[in-house]
Amino acid sequence: MVTTKSIPPLTPAVFHILLALSTGERHGYGIMKQVEVDSQGKVTMGPGTLYGSLKRMLDAGLVRESEKRVDPEMDDERRIYYQITGMGAEALAAELERYQRIVTIAQQRKLYPKTLAYDV
Amino acid sequence: MSDARTVHALYRKLLAFYPQEFRDRLGLSMEQTFQDLWNERLQTKKGWFSFVLWTFVETAIGIFREYLLLISPGDLMQTILKPIGSSALLGFLFILPFMIMEVVNRRNFKEEFPTFLFFAMWLNLFAVSVILLPILRARRTGTHAMANSASTKGSTLLRNPGSAAITSVVLFLSPGILPLLDSVGWLSLDRLFNGPNPEAAYLPGMIMSLGLLLFSVAAGIVASRPIVNTLRARGSLFAHPINLIIVVLLLSTFVIGLATLIIDQWPCFVGVRNCD
Lengths: 120, 276
Prior knowledge:
The complex is a heterodimer of chains A (about 120) and B (about 280).
Chain A: H1 12-21, H2 28-38, H3 47-60, E1 63-70, E2 78-84, H4 86-108
Antiparallel strand pairs in A: 1-2
Helix pairs in contact in A: 1-2
Chain B: H1 2-15, H2 20-43, H3 49-71, H4 76-105, H5 115-141, H6 144-152, H7 156-159, H8 161-173, H9 177-183, H10 189-194, H11 203-232, H12 241-269
Helix pairs in contact in B: 1-2, 1-3, 4-5, 5-11, 5-12, 6-11, 8-11, 11-12
């Protein structure tokens, strides 16, 4: 059972990387592109932020490196792929649960955009 | 094509500045990602200058961040960046009334705005705040969890009170080598700080003065680190007396410096003509 109490909140960069990896393994560039798609272009992650976060995620066991292989959609260079671990999936689930609770509170307090008094 | 080669070679050189462990683990991947971003840029036929500038700056910030984390792991914002940002802002807010007094009370005298005076005031305040804030914050919010992360990680230099005290004293005294070199005639301090024409403002001299002041700020931060760690562990403020004495002495120096500036310039702030 995932509880928000046992896992600390994630930084936005770590959250987006985990979200990008939740649908499958990706290499660095692939993660960047997926983050852009997931955030509808609102989050652009540079290599410094991406790899700094990946380093800490590897150390914390949230992601792991998988075998080097060629991306069929790109050139013929072999790339290092990253995949989410069980712990990473739990951390992502806990973060989403936190978001869910915040959205629920916002709705109850009529702060959620669609329930705002002046919006109705 | 040669542009691409040069840019790639430069990026590889930039990556060499990452800490060894980071470079060994992720350097190759980063290089590959840069190549992918470059290819994407070429395909979209957008200019490469802004892309190169953004990537290099972003990566350089990443390198800086990795070194900061090596010095002080844990919550980076909490340990390093937050006190610096808050201190810079506090310093500015404190000098703001004096700046307003200067502008309002001297508006008829057609004098130049004394930027360097306010910068010196701000710097003294910044120094006091950047040393004192983490101590106050640690005292107020100290928890066992934070203490664990601070005491089990981090470089020995900042964790060990003895080595932190020695490093701090060395940092504080190191600018003292300049008067020594001046006394044996190896360099001229006057020329170094005032330039060839002492009547005119000399920017390199000002920058060097600022650099020397920053040595004292760094000395205060290094000396206070074991105190902050102990306070986070709910230990006593007086657990490291030598470090505490160094911190108090440095803080006193900055406070006296600031008070002297305010007292000396007070007539100017209140609008006395020919106050200097």
